[in-house]
Design goal:
Layout lengths: L2 H34 L4 H4 L13 H8 L6 H32 L5 H10 L5 H14 L7 H4 L8 H12 L4 H8 L4 H12 L1 H17 L2 H6 L8 H6 L10 H33 L4
Length: about 280
């Protein structure tokens, strides 16, 4: 075999070995989580191996019996309501804001866009107290509104930027043709631009769903009634600082909470790649 071919083969083997090793490292916590969900209580912390010595499905049975007097399906339903409303608001508001910044000409567009982009660097904790005071004055604390209402006002600058970059890549002749046919700005957006934003819309939907589904901090701040708890808040009820913690059922519920995320990602993975690649993310 020629020297050049041997070097190419060696590089290929080295590259694939590194990728496989990286996948093993990344997947180990997930495999450990699934394995621990089948371990009895006395093995969860004592047995650190991947395979349980005495596998059991009682952890999942305890999960389906409910926690704090409420069924797991209620927590699933609460998470689904919050996530779907957040996705709906974020997609519509960010797409509309992206169209305005990317297509329409108005005074102050540049400074407003720069100010919007600068909010990406603003930590969420900075605005937490003012937002809480506002929602408290509006009597919305302990409801889902503080978690979903801001999404209808294009507060996620990253997704607005994604939409702007995608809109800028669309031919302006589409707007001119729609204007000739008598369409105003909103009808042009709704009937012409929005259907072409499908990759960016799906990308925004996936990330918004995942981030909202996994959100713990915001839901912990605004939700106080266990009947309104989402899955992340229900998980922490298995950890009791004053008595024995139920780590087995907590791991089992964690596995069940991952299932919708995996299904969404697998179903829309192709659109996610298309949305990121076609948006360009360029200036």
């Amino acid at each position: 075999m020629p020297v050049k071919a041997r070097r190419s083969t060696a590089r290929s083997v080295l590259w694939h070995s590194a990728v496989v090793a990286l996948v093993v490292v990344l997947m180990y916590p997930v495999v450990w989580l699934v394995s621990s969900s089948f371990k009895p209580a006395n093995e969860v912390l004592s047995n650190l191996s991947l395979l349980p010595d005495h596998g059991t499905g009682s952890n999942y049975g305890e999960v389906f019996e409910g926690v704090a007097g409420y069924s797991i399906w209620q927590y699933f339903g609460n998470s689904l309501i919050v996530s779907v409303l957040a996705v709906t608001g974020n997609v519509f508001s960010c797409a509309l804001a992206g169209y305005v910044f990317g297509r329409l000409q108005f005074r102050g567009r540049g400074p407003l866009f720069a100010f919007m982009i600068s909010t990406i660097m603003l930590p969420h904790h900075v605005v937490l107290i003012p937002q809480y005071i506002i929602f408290q004055k509006l009597h919305m604390v302990n409801t889902f509104w503080p978690l979903v209402l801001p999404k209808f006002f294009a507060v996620d600058a990253f997704f607005v930027f994604l939409m702007v970059q995608f809109v800028r890549g669309l031919p302006r002749e589409l707007d001119e043709s729609a204007s000739i046919d008598g369409c105003g700005p909103f009808r042009t957006f709704w009937h012409v631009i929005l259907p072409l934003l499908r990759p960016a819309v799906i990308t925004t939907s996936i990330f918004t769903f995942i981030w909202t589904w996994n959100d713990f901090f915001s839901q912990l701040i605004y939700l106080n009634d266990p009947s309104k708890f989402t899955l992340p808040l229900a998980l922490q009820m298995y950890v009791d600082q004053t008595s024995q913690s139920s780590f087995g059922p907590m791991f089992a519920m964690s596995v069940l909470a991952l299932v919708p995320l995996v299904l969404v990602f697998v179903a829309f993975q192709r659109f996610l790649v298309d949305g990121v690649s076609t948006s360009g993310l360029k200036g």
